[in-house]
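User: Structure please.
Assistant: Input sequence and predicted structure:
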Amino acid sequence: MGLFSSIMEKLGFGASPAQAAPAPQAAPTAAPTPVAPAPPKAIKTVDVVAKLEGLAASHKEKLNWKVSIVDLMKLLGLDSSLTARKGLATELGCPAEKMGDSAQMNMWLHKTVLQKLAENGGNIPKELL
């Protein structure tokens, strides 16, 4: 499980479709019966802002998760070290030119994490994207 999956899990997204266990396959029968395609599954909406604001309200440190990837990770109880952030940046496909500058990497990482959360059903306001 990657660090982004841990972020999603901590925010209540549950298992992503890629993490879901495959269904057991039945033994093939003599003549397969045509099956209609399954309807697409609705993405569960998660109010990310409400969850993070709730965590921030009860956190001992004042963390600015809206602009800082370090604070966002700390708020979720995850390792926010440079090594962990570089791992997350690599996992999410950060451009090589940003990886060499931690400030640029952090800004890219914060924006990308919020965008990916939104893509997976997170209710993220446009001003944070």
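The longest helix spans residues 102-119.
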